[in-house]
Write a structure and sequence with these properties.
single chain; alpha+beta; Helicase, Ruva Protein, domain 3; Tetrahydropterin Synthase, Chain A; four-stranded antiparallel beta sheet; three-stranded antiparallel beta sheet; 11 helices; 9 strands; flat
Length: 302
């Protein structure tokens, strides 16, 4: 089985829970393409994996920073990676990540502009300062990802899961809500939704925001599964539509069941909150960063 290594088989098994021999067969059938192998196992009914999940193989911190802008708000998440978890507990590193997040607020929010931003009080850019930090910390450091949201009126609520220090941890979420309603009430519901996002891992805020490739891939897998029933194509099409609705309920934030009460859709939660504060609430977006997401053990991207 040239090109198929034991490490690849183990990785696929960890991702899907399928048996070792099934994983070997899936990789052989797909020429070692991990994502295609996941789909192959799903079509055979041997895996329930809906998508290839990121593997946390790098260390460091996710940090959040926010600022009011008149009646509106802006917030940013940054991921700064290190080689070991030991560094994440280093106070110098923690302060550096927090300062990078603050510096990012003055940029467009993309990684390139954040790297070029002045690092507070250093007389250097963020990238230059990180380069110097390598010598102090003794490990390679990298600003890997950043994400920014803003609203002209309303709030950007944030949540950091299991913070190592205030505003920084392993998972960070920001949620944008547009509204003229009372800010404290908006912040409260926004934070609850941010906590939901941290736990539920939605792929998109609305159905129309889903990546078309993800939807097409899901339809193809569902269609192959349905054909196993031997039913006519017209029935299969309806089966796929029904199962796709279930997929949306699992993958789309506004379609998900709110983890706080376990029974109300997030879209309805916002409708109810709007009645309470006496002003419409428009969901304007979310961002979720999980430390090391999509990085393999050799430091490459998935």
């Amino acid at each position: 089985m040239p090109g198929i290594t034991a490490a690849m088989v183990k990785e696929l098994r960890d991702m899907t829970g399928a048996g070792m021999m099934d994983c070997k067969a899936a990789l052989a059938e797909t020429g070692g393409d991990m994502e295609a192998a996941v789909d192959w196992l799903r079509k055979k009914g041997l895996s329930k994996a809906a998508k290839k999940s990121g593997r946390t193989a790098s260390e460091g911190l996710i940090a959040v920073a926010a600022a009011r802008q008149g009646e509106g708000a802006k917030a940013v998440l940054v991921e700064v990676n290190s080689e070991t978890d030991f560094v994440a507990r280093n106070e110098i590193f923690q302060k550096t990540v927090a300062e990078i997040a603050k510096a990012a607020l003055s940029t467009k929010g993309d990684v390139a502009s954040v790297r070029r931003a002045p690092f507070p009080g250093a007389g250097k850019t963020v990238e230059e300062h990180l380069g110097e930090m390598v010598g102090q910390i003794g490990e390679n450091l990298n600003l890997r990802r950043s994400s920014m949201l803003s609203v002209p009126a309303g709030v950007i609520a944030s949540y950091v899961h299991s913070p190592v220090v205030e505003g920084a941890g392993k998972i960070g979420v920001i949620v944008a809500l547009k509204s003229s309603g009372e800010k404290a009430a908006l912040e409260k519901i926004g934070r609850q939704i941010a906590m939901h996002v941290a736990a539920a891992r939605p792929l998109a805020g609305r159905i129309e925001d889903l990546d078309p490739e993800i939807v097409a891939r899901e339809k193809a897998v569902l269609a192959d599964q349905a054909r196993g029933s031997g039913k006519p194509e017209a029935i299969i099409e309806k089966m796929v539509e029904g199962r796709l609705r279930k997929f949306y309920e699992e993958a789309v934030l506004l379609e998900q069941i709110f983890v706080v009460d376990g029974e109300t859709r997030v879209s309805k939660v916002l409708e109810n909150a709007a009645k309470d504060i006496g002003a419409p609430i428009e969901f304007a977006g979310f961002a979720r960063l999980e430390l090391g997401e999509g990085v393999d053990k050799n430091g490459g991207e998935d």
